[in-house]
Amino acid sequence: MNNEEWYDAEIAPELMKLAKACEDRGVAFVASVEYEPGERGATYVLPKDAGLEMVMLHHCAKMGANLDGYVLGLRRYAKEHNIDTSASLIMNQF
Q1: How many other C-beta atoms can be found within 10 angstroms of the C-beta atom of residue 30?
Q2: What's the number of CA atoms in the CB half-sphere (13 Å) around residue 32?
Q3: Which of 4, 31, 45, 84 is least surrounded by CB atoms within 10 angstroms?
Q4: Which residues contact 89 (CB under 8 A, 6 or more apart)?
Q5: Whole-number CA gyration radius for the chain
Q6: What is the pLDDT of residues 19-68, one digit of tens each?
Q7: Cα angle at 53 between 49 and 74, to 5 degrees?
Q8: Average pLDDT for 74-90
Q9: Is the pTM of this model over 0.90?
Q10: CA atoms of 30 and 47, how far apart (whole Å)
C-alpha cells in the first residue's frame, strides 16, 4: 500500500469524522496532509462566519504551491467581504 492509498483508507476518514464534529458545532476546521512531496489531501469545514485566518488556511490547502491562485483568490475574497487590505504591500500592487 502506498502513502496515498494509506491516507485515503486510514487518515481521510478520521479527518472527515473530525470535520463533521466541528461542523455540527459551527467550528471551522482545516487539515492538509502531504503524503508525498507535492501530493496532498485536504479536509475542511468553514462556517459562513469563519475568521479570515481560517479562510486563508483553507485557500492555501486548496491552492498548494499555486501562489498566484492563492493571492488572487484571497484578493477576491477580501473584495467580496469588504476586508481592508490597504496595509498589504502585495494587495496594493493590484
Answers
A1: 22
A2: 15
A3: 84
A4: none
A5: 15
A6: 999 999 999 999 999 999 989 999 999 998 999 999 999 999 999 889 99
A7: 90
A8: 90
A9: no
A10: 11
Residue type, 76: R
CB-count exposure of residue 22 (10 Å: 0-12, 13-18, 19+): middle
- Which residue bears the cell 501530493? 39
Query: How far apart are alpha carbons 76 and 9 in whole angstroms?
Result: 35
Please check whether residue 6 is in contact with residue 35, taking contact to mean a CB–CB distance below 8 angstroms.
yes
Please name which of 44, 2, 51 lies closest in space to residue 22, comparing C-alpha atoms: 44
- Any idea which residue has 496595509 for its cell? 87
CB burial of residue 53 (10 Å; 0-12, 13-18, 19+): exposed
- Cite the DSSP H helix spans in the chain: 3-6, 12-25, 52-63, 67-80
Q: Which three cell numbers stand for residue 85?
A: 487590505
